[in-house]
Predict the structure.
Amino acid sequence: MDAEGDFAGDYGTPEQEIPDTGLPGVDWESCMTMNKTWGWKSADNEWKSDALLIRNLIDIASKGGNYLLNVGPTHEGLIPAPSIERLHAMGDWLFVYEESIYGSDASPFEKPDWGRFTQKEGQIFAHVFEWPEDGTLRIPLMDGRPYKSIQVIDCCEDLPWEIRGDDAFISLPLEAPNSIATVVKLEY
């Protein structure tokens, strides 16, 4: 991508950044490292946290992009233990919440302060990074329609909620089931 935002080919690949609004109308991926450098460097021990990598994945998916995550083998051809640990953490999170990421589309809503949204046909997924202190999550209605069901994936039965104006106000469990990103699934 050049300074004007034009691409040489048919796919955008920003490196080491996630565009604020994604790249609407363009297939794109964000190419990033797990630490500070590309490939493997024995002196680079500034590894990104599991939480940051998982939240990057969610942020990119919420903008319609793909996460191209660099993993560099050592000079012996081995994947470094810190990379393996982080990939396992990402895999563990995806095992529970995969439906909110795989095959999802960009968010239909503005970015909320507490997390991100993804969507699929008939479903909205609210990825909650910051659990609300008052236990209430406010989510816009999809096209003004009430939701059929709202639940925390892997945790609870349908959650109680009410419509006020153009928003659903959802009563959440007292504690987040996942400290990195809990996903609330809304069906409409």
Q: What stands out?
A: The chain has a mean pLDDT of 93. Strands lie at 29-33, 66-70, 115-120, 123-128, 136-140, 149-152, 161-164, 167-171, 182-187. The helical segments are 50-62, 81-97. The CA atoms of residues 37 and 44 lie 7 Å apart.
